[in-house]
Design goal:
Chain lengths: ~325, ~325
């Protein structure tokens, strides 16, 4: 008899197929579990799968009195109340690195699409404006990648992969992270200094209480009027209203976003800009990274039900 | 008194500002020079500037009986009838390498935007479909870059820069060019073998009579139904109708194009596809590459009028 596992966040069904072959999944699909399942059904649940960014409070954990393992699909776990989990002796797992290449790729795609104005360019062709030789101020030549100063905030697995990719475009790479890393890029001791130096800020930091809104109006202003910001980490790291303001009054030039303050909502104030590129949190969304993340989820759940420590455990938890 | 130089192709005025400070430009702006200028005005013209892709026949050269130098803005010179120039003792110059990084960047942008469906993703956010959790078959996970087989056709300066960038994305790189080069990528002895091996074909070959329509229905079919083609070289290298057919009947999955058979026209048959990304021949279109191309044009014209050989001469001419 397969073990029962609650699926807490809303996931496309296709992502749960392999996991569903091994475990008996109760799919709450983004709703509070007690609205979807009876207390009796939930009483036997010892493990759950969640998207790391989805808020998961102690109260929610208490709906499953035997809950002892929270397994995040993906590398993030910022939505999980780790203190609440710890006090309930619930272990927390994730999928470190499984989607690092895929997320780094999206970061670079957003960077390149924003700086070379790809969406404007595609529209210029499709609309017939190119054939009509219609003047387009947005199509004026922009600075390219060689020599461009790219600042990376966060030098974990994703930050490193972003840096390696960006460096191949002959750009200069600088970074800020809590500590200097053994990487061949210029280190800045704080985010302010990095923002003063770079023209593009790539946000690749692990989200948490200490990174909430650290990319604020002041940091954006330091990027300068040619500045761009790219965020593939979590929406919470940027003060989204400050970003809208900075784009509105041209304090910075452009933005590329894969993550937002309240997903799946990108506010109209953002979607109205022609100089932004917006993707629907698809950083980790490749076939290979989903397979790798599922491998981690299955390995974590299998170990848990065998009474072993999770192989991909969140150490802070 | 500055020397008189005919501007043959249609260029944005801003690109000719620096050149216009040194030479007296007669701007035909894409029209036959004899429709814009009198025979007397043209009689004194000894040098001209053209976009390398613009057709330039011997008859056109004969409108300027003293013409002795054709200077191409950019690396290409496929539009220039080199035999006609040679028989008239007209030297031909270009701007080799000046835009290589910029063009390679566009190639990689198109590759990434096509394979990760960036335009579909941006539209999914802006339309509100993401917020409404509307199912979208186009947004299903796709293969990522690590391990992907990227075939590069042509290993000149642009091909090398494409290869270096693509390799940083952890992809496998193979190439075909007329001869094996001293590069750390897998060599294929012909285009058929490269197309059989790769899933994405990047066209970076110098265009000319020998490359006309070499990427034909057969080559496209070899890429397979997950295959993509990216062209940043010249529209003439692909049989554009064969490409439309291959996309229509799903012989290949997608395409990214910066160049077209008849510019500035992208046919409706292409612009109707959601699985293509189209840019308006902006490969070399960055501030730095325009400056570098203008440097080459100015150096070529200055040398010519001083009676010296062109520093950036087309050797085939």
């Amino acid at each position: 008899m397969p073990e029962r596992v609650l699926v807490y966040s809303r996931f496309p069904k296709s992502l749960m197929l392999r996991i569903g072959e091994r475990f008996d999944l109760l799919d709450a699909a983004g709703k509070p579990p007690n609205e979807v399942f009876t207390a009796e059904q939930l009483s036997g649940v010892r493990a759950m799968i969640t998207a790391g960014g989805t808020p998961l409070s102690g109260n929610m954990m208490d709906m499953m009195p035997k809950l002892a393992a929270i397994v995040c699909y993906g590398t993030g776990y910022d939505g999980v109340d780790l203190k609440a989990a710890k006090s309930r002796k619930i272990t927390v797992g994730h999928s470190p690195g499984a989607n690092a290449a895929s997320v780094a790729d999206i970061a670079v795609i957003l960077l390149l699409a924003v700086t070379r104005r790809l969406l404007v360019a595609d529209h210029y062709v499709r609309s017939g404006d190119w054939a009509a030789a219609k003047p387009s101020p947005m199509m004026r030549p922009q600075p390219g990648m060689p020599g461009r100063k790219i600042g990376i905030y966060g030098m974990g697995e994703i930050g490193r992969k972003i840096a390696a990719r960006v460096a191949a475009f002959e750009a200069e790479v600088g970074y800020f992270s809590r500590s200097r890393r053994d990487v061949p890029y210029r280190y800045f001791p704080n985010l302010e200094a990095l923002a003063d130096w770079c023209s593009v800020l790539m946000i690749a930091v692990r989200a948490g209480a200490d990174t909430h809104h650290v990319v604020n109006a002041d940091i954006l202003k330091r990027l300068g009027e040619d500045g761009c910001v790219v965020n593939i980490a979590r929406g919470s790291v940027i003060d989204q209203q400050a970003l809208v303001n900075a784009l509105t009054d041209k304090t910075i030039a452009a933005a590329g976003l894969d993550v937002y303050a309240r997903e799946p909502h990108a506010p109209d104030a953002l979607t109205a800009f022609p100089n932004v590129v917006l993707s629907p949190h698809i950083g980790g969304h490749t076939l290979e990274s989903h397979t790798a993340m599922q491998d981690c989820v299955i390995a974590n759940l299998t170990a848990f039900f065998e009474g072993k420590p999770l192989p991909y455990v969140v150490r802070e938890a």
